[in-house]
Amino acid sequence: MLLLLSPYVWAQAEGGFSPFFVPQLKSELPKEVSETSGLFFHNGRLWTHNDSGGKPILFALDTTTFEIVQRVTLAHVRNMDWEDVCTDDKSVFVGEFGNNKGTRKDLKVYTFPLSSIPDEGDAVVEVDSITFRYVDQTDFSKRKYRHDYDCEAFFAADDCLYLLAKGWATGTTRLYRLPKTLGDYVAEVVNGFDSQGLITGADYDSERHILVVVGYVKNIWKPFMYIIFDFDEAGVKLPNHRFEMPQLAGGQMEGICFFDDGRCYVSAETSQTMTARVFVVDFRKWIERELKNSKK
Q1: Of the N and C termini of the chain, which has fewer Cβ atoms inside 10 Å?
Q2: 160/204 Cα distance (integer angstroms)
Q3: How far is CA 280 from CA 17, 96, 213, in A?
Q4: 178 found inside a domain
Q5: 115: containing domain
Q6: For the segment 154-192, what is each residue's pLDDT rounded down to a tens digit?
Q7: SS3 91
Q8: Contacting residues for 215 by C-beta, under 8 A, at least 6 apart
Q9: For the chain, what is the domain count?
Q10: How far apart are CA 29 and CA 81, in angstroms?
């Protein structure tokens, strides 16, 4: 049961005040997307997909009823373990890089033109692939949930894709970089930070250079979010805005995306304590404060 609290509940923390945050519940999600894993917003609709073993389909949800109103199938591919999806102004990128065991050598990103998605109706689209490996992974032995080479979150910025590693072993994250162009690449480490939990989703506002991240703390399933201002791959400000969501403990937060200036959708897949559902988080207060402070 969700607690109906104010969106902002402050608690004293070392070094200052740390916000506890209660997202606004919008709706439960249809059973067909009970394993929602990634999100993007396009043409006034919220798009999602299921993770491992789901059909190779992107589902569009009406933002009033949150019923499925469109299905776009990726032709001639499987959903081995789709973990996130992102877009830029031209393309859709689907992350086929889930790697819980640490053994995968077939990591890839499927991509197709954003214009291939019709305004209405279902469609089948042809896709291309970007394949890659991690520059620092040399051990491919089976270490399920005991390694740092899984990934469930990525975003597009400028000419690159950036992947946030899910640090099963260390609880930290590394930031990897790939070109957005087709090819086979070695994903380079360009940054990282102590995420204090498992990163599962990300989105980037290219106009304001704002990165949002969602995840949960391992074993206790306590969700959190970060908002990172002035993103730059070589000089990421360590996340000074971490939002805890203890009231949603047990929920497996998976996807996040901006849908207007400062507001995001966040999705949770079905877990032992929660059905699949979608929330809205409102970062406008924090963005306005940061912009005001930057002008001083």
Answers
A1: C
A2: 12
A3: 23, 26, 14
A4: yes
A5: 23-294
A6: 999 999 999 999 999 999 999 999 999 999 999 999 988
A7: strand
A8: 153, 166, 195, 197, 198, 199, 200, 201, 223, 224, 225, 253
A9: 1
A10: 20
In whole angstroms, give the CA distance from residue 211 to residue 221.
22
Sign of CA dihedral 127, 191, 48, 45: negative
* Residue tagged 């002035």 (tokens): 230
What is d(CA 103, CA 80) in angstroms, rounded to the nearest whole number?
13
**pLDDT tens string 104-119:** 999 999 999 999 999 9
Asked if residue 112 lies in contact with residue 132, where contact means CB atoms within 8 angstroms, the answer is no
Q: Is residue 111 part of a domain?
A: yes
Give the CATH number for residue 141.
2.115.10
Rounded to two decimals, the pTM is 0.92
- Say how far residue 77 (Cα) sits from the centre of its chain: 21
Residue 9 lies in a domain: no
DSSP bridge partners of 189: 176
Beta bridge partners of 247: none
DSSP one-letter code for 277: E
Alpha helices in 22-83 (DSSP H): none
Distance, in Å, from the CA atom of 34 to the CA atom of 257, rounded to the nearest integer, reads 18
